[in-house]
Amino acid sequence: MSDTAARRVGIMGGTFDPIHIGHLILAECAYGQFQLDTVRFMPSGNPPHKMDRAGGATDEERLEMVRLAIRDNPHFSLDAEEMRRIGFSYTSDTLAALKRQNPDVDYYFIIGADSLFSFDAWHEPEVISRNCVLLTAVRDGRSVSAMEEKIEELRARYGARIHLLEMPNLAVSSTDLRFWRQEGRSLRYYVPDAVLEYMEQRGIYRDAVL
Ligand code: ATP
Ligand code: MG
User: Fold this and answer.
1) Considering every ligand atom, which ligand is closest to the CA of 113?
2) Does residue 10 have its Cβ closer than 6 Å to ligand 1?
């Protein structure tokens, strides 16, 4: 669905190295709980805080893993825009550009609690806050009350509109999965079967020095 047809668009940003159930369940919760028309998965280029991604998948592989993971979900789509651009693009720039192109669309940027707590360190938090509503879910066992406190703080500081999603704490990260794979541990059920097959076919993360 294009943004001209959709009014409430979720954006699920991440490095997705690899995509896993945490990302997928988070996006599905946002879709269902905020009546979104669609959720766009937007794999990032190499962000400044993840420049040292030696042993990670290539851009093309990260993109393909996302495509495989979401292909059977009609309200998920893939947006490779950030990755295609030369150099790194900030979330604030991406959201500002989207909002400029589609002023009638409401954008919902979907994040886990770790991103909520590091929000102050993001590039131009006030620009992000102006151009989207943030939807956030628990991660790393952060308490709801600590999250509510942080939400209130960011509202006061940037005028950020942030809502909590209902989601169980899922203790999974791409970093863990890369290590597990290197150790030969199974990733089954943590990533969709098609992603696992692709990873195995290409030997992704297998021989990496992480
Ligand atoms: P890495 O370990 O490489 O940082 P990651 O698992 O944190 O990978 P990212 O691509 O960094 O995945 O995350 C993209 C977004 O998804 C972030 O906002 C992050 O908070 C959220 N997210 C990732 N995993 C989970 C999870 N298990 N529960 C809730 N949110 C998650
Ligand atoms: Mg992360």
Assistant:
1) 1
2) no
DSSP bridge partners of 191: 188
Question: Environment class of residue 112 by beta-carbon count within 10 Å: exposed (0-12), middle (13-18) or buried (19+)?
Answer: buried
Q: How far is the CA of 4 from the centre of ligand 2 (A)?
A: 31
Which ligand minimizes its atom distance to the CA of 66? 1
Q: How far apart are CA 92 and CA 130, in angstroms?
A: 9
Whether the pLDDT of residue 44 is over 60: the answer is yes
Domains and CATH numbers, the chain: 7-202 (3.40.50.620)
89: pLDDT strictly greater than 80: yes
pLDDT at 206: 84
Over residues 150-196, the pLDDT tens digits come to: 999 999 999 999 999 999 999 999 999 999 999 999 999 999 999 99
